[in-house]
Design brief:
- The chain is mostly helical.
- The protein has a domain of 66 residues: 434 Repressor (Amino-terminal Domain), CATH 1.10.260.
- Helices cover 50% and strands 0% of the residues.
- It is built from five helices and no strands.
- Helix 2 runs parallel beside helix 5 and helix 3 crosses helix 4.
- The N and C termini lie far apart (33 Å).
């Protein structure tokens, strides 16, 4: 049996101390961006629905989300009509991770 090599995120590779949190936020921002794009909304229209200012939404969509919590981003997804489910499972052998799975 071969040893599986763990795949690191770009945030881990760059040495961010909060790499897991940054990856989670990136995944949430990508889903928000996808929904906004599919609906054909401008950032101004989307910001109004999400309860954000357009500049704050713009920063988030460009990956500048350090000032925004994961919970706030999940609330944005709910405002877009998505269900958000948090599933707590057993810890895996190689360590626990937070993942975003879009249905």
């Amino acid at each position: 049996m071969r040893n599986a090599t763990a795949v690191k995120s770009a945030y881990e590779e760059l040495g961010f101390p909060d790499a897991d949190k940054m990856l989670l936020k990136a995944q949430l921002a990508m889903k928000i961006a996808e929904i906004v794009r599919l609906r054909g909304w401008s950032q101004q229209q989307a910001a109004k629905v999400l309860g954000l200012t357009q500049p704050k939404l713009s920063k988030m969509l460009r990956g500048q989300f350090r000032g925004m919590s994961e919970m706030r981003m999940m609330e944005c997804l709910v405002r877009l009509g998505c269900g958000v489910k948090i599933v707590i499972g057993r810890r895996r052998e190689k360590g626990a991770r937070v993942e975003v799975l879009a249905a």
